[in-house]
Structure formats: structure tokens, C-alpha cells
Design a protein that fits this description.
about 325 residues; alpha/beta; TIM Barrel; eight-stranded parallel beta barrel; 9 strands; about 45% helix; Bact_Lucif_Oxidored
């Protein structure tokens, strides 16, 4: 199946049971190097906090680490949760990355805290900004990258004048509205919040206002993909992912667990149903069984790029999943 669409990768530097964060970072580098060879166009890291299974609390640092170990694949944030940060600091950090690794750095931005409210308060000590200030923070950030900011009393070095593509992330209609108004590429988090995917994508396309940075809409959908040599094996690997999702529902955080033969004694019917709804944009199977799943998805949603999240416990099996996915989408 040749979709002629770019395909890319989302990573959270997953920390596994019986392993530590250093292992997660080394594994992310292995993933980035393998994805580069397989033709993935970019790899993004997501900012999350106070989560025992997520090592990407500082995407800015990991981006530099991965960029140093690769040569062509684009790397970026998917995303930086801007309410947690000063726009000036983000401009300086990504300006530094773009200077060191020209034409390879993306800046994806979200308005959520990427954590619980208590942790969000700890992250923003001494700051009073909230998600309501996100549009103005976004404008400030874009200005810091612009050459038109030269006469300002506050300038972002070395960001000023650099071409660092900014993407807006979201999972709601409000993010679709903002992305269309600002003329920005839009990445939708359908891998965990698919409810508004179709409506948001349609609104974005129909109401897109061209900007100096983007002439026409560019829509990315992120989905979960777990691929293996057999359907049975793929569904077995998926149980690690289900256990992580179950922890989110129960308000518990723990490293990614090993796969299990059955989830029956781990979740109840209500939890299983909730997770299935949350993971509606999850594709599990072999090269042969994945093709019709993707074909059906592309008939429902017009996407310019498909971003995949592949959460599998075993490293070699995860690399294999990326290979199969690339074969299907390439």
C-alpha cells in the first residue's frame, strides 16, 4: 500500500519495568536511528511530567541527544507544553538546537500541562500564566523567531531569523480553531483522544487561513500501531500498552509492564470499554492485516502525514514493528 504520505514517529522515552531511565534514552536513540534508515520523516518527543513510565519530561535535551546520534531524520517536540514555560526560553532552546542541527528541528506546541494539576502547579512556581494565555504566548514565541523582532528590547539569541517550523498540537475543536486562525500545521492526538478527530480535521481544512509560514493546511494524525509477524503476537504485545492505559484510568503511574497472555483478570469490563474508546485509533496486526485498517482510516480522515506511536516492551520487537509499519505505509 503506497499512501504517498509521509510517515513519522512519536516517542515518549518509555521507561520499562526492570529497566531505568538511561535504558529508555538509549532505546530512543536506537529507535531514532532505525526510523531514519526506514524512511520515517521525523521523530517527536512528548513532554509529560510525574509519570513513572515516561522519560521525556525534557524533550529539549533529548532532541539534542538524538540529533547527535542521527544525521537526516527531523527531530522535535510533540510537544512542548507552552504554559509550563517562558516563550523566550523555548525560543532560545530551540534556536540553539536549530543552530547546531540546521534544517532538522521542529517545534510542536501544546496548551495542556502534560500532567496532573498538582504537578502543573509545581512546574509553574512563580508564574501565573494559564492555558488562556496560550494564544498570546504563541504569538510571543513566533515573534522571537522573526527577524522583525530586531528592534525589540527583548530578543532571543540565537533563535532570531531561524526557520524552526512551529506545529500546533491538540485533541479538541478549540485547537483546530486556533491552528486554522494562525495558519499553522496541526497535529491531532488521536492516539489517546480520538473523539474529535474527524470534526477537528474538517474544521481545520475548511477554515484554514494561509500565513507567511504555510500556504495551505497541513494535518497530522497520530495513531498507535503495534505490528508483528502474526496477529496473535501483535495482540500479545499490545497488552503492555493496555496496562499503561489502565494505569492512567486508575490514576496510577508505573513503568511499562511486560505483556501478558490475557487482560481478563487485570481489568474489568468498564475499564476495558473505556480503554477501547480511548484507543480507537489503534492498529494492531501483521503487514497483511494492517493494510485494510489503514485504508479504512484514510477514507474517513484526510491526513497529510501519519504519525505513529509504537509502545512495545521488547526493543527488538518494537524495531520490527517499525519495519512492518514502514513496509505498509511506504
Amino acid at each position: 500500500m503506497n499512501t504517498t504520505k509521509p510517515y513519522s514517529l512519536l516517542d515518549l522515552a518509555i521507561i520499562r519495568e526492570d529497566f531505568d531511565a538511561k535504558d529508555a534514552y538509549i532505546r530512543s536513540l536506537q529507535i531514532a536511528q532505525h526510523a531514519e534508515k526506514l524512511g520515517y520523516s521525523r521523530m517527536w518527543l512528548a513532554e509529560h511530567h510525574n509519570m513513572a513510565n515516561v522519560g521525556s519530561s525534557s524533550p529539549q535535551i533529548l532532541i539534542g541527544y538524538l540529533a547527535n546520534g542521527t544525521s537526516t531524520i527531523r527531530l522535535g517536540s510533540g510537544g512542548i507544553m507552552l504554559p509550563n514555560h517562558s516563550p523566550l526560553i523555548i525560543a532560545e532552546q530551540f534556536g540553539t538546537l536549530a543552530t547546531l542541527y540546521p534544517n532538522r528541528i521542529d517545534l510542536g506546541l501544546g496548551r495542556a500541562p502534560g500532567t496532573d494539576q498538582t504537578t502543573a502547579t509545581a512546574l509553574r512556581r512563580g508564574r501565573h500564566e494559564s492555558v488562556q494565555e496560550f494564544p498570546s504566548d504563541l504569538d510571543d514565541l513566533r515573534r522571537y523567531f522573526s527577524e522583525d523582532n530586531m528592534d525589540s528590547k527583548v530578543r532571543a539569541f540565537p533563535a532570531e531569523g531561524l526557520d524552526v517550523p512551529i506545529y500546533l498540537l491538540g485533541s479538541s475543536m478549540s485547537s483546530a480553531v486556533l491552528a486554522s486562525e494562525k495558519g499553522l500545521p496541526y497535529a491531532f492526538a488521536s492516539h489517546f483522544a480520538p473523539a474529535y478527530l474527524i470534526n477537528a480535521s474538517r474544521y481545520y481544512r475548511e477554515n484554514f487561513q494561509p500565513s507567511a509560514h504555510l500556504a495551505k493546511p497541513y494535518f497530522i494524525s497520530c495513531v498507535n500501531v503495534i505490528a508483528a509477524d502474526t496477529d496473535e503476537e501483535a495482540h500479545y504485545f499490545a497488552t503492555s500498552f493496555y496496562q499503561t492505559a489502565l494505569g492512567i484510568i486508575r490514576g496510577r503511574s508505573y513503568p511499562m509492564k511486560k505483556p501478558v497472555k490475557s487482560m481478563d483478570n487485570i481489568w474489568n469490563e468498564a475499564e476495558a470499554a473505556a480503554i477501547q474508546n480511548m484507543m480507537a485509533c489503534t492498529f494492531i496486526g501483521t503487514k497483511e492485516s494492517l493494510k485494510p485498517q489503514f485504508e479504512s482510516f484514510f477514507k474517513q480522515v484526510e491526513v497529510d502525514e501519519l504519525m505513529v506511536s509504537t509502545n512495545i516492551y521488547d526493543t527488538e520487537k518494537r524495531l520490527k514493528s517499525l519495519e512492518i509499519t514502514a513496509e505498509v505505509l511506504g
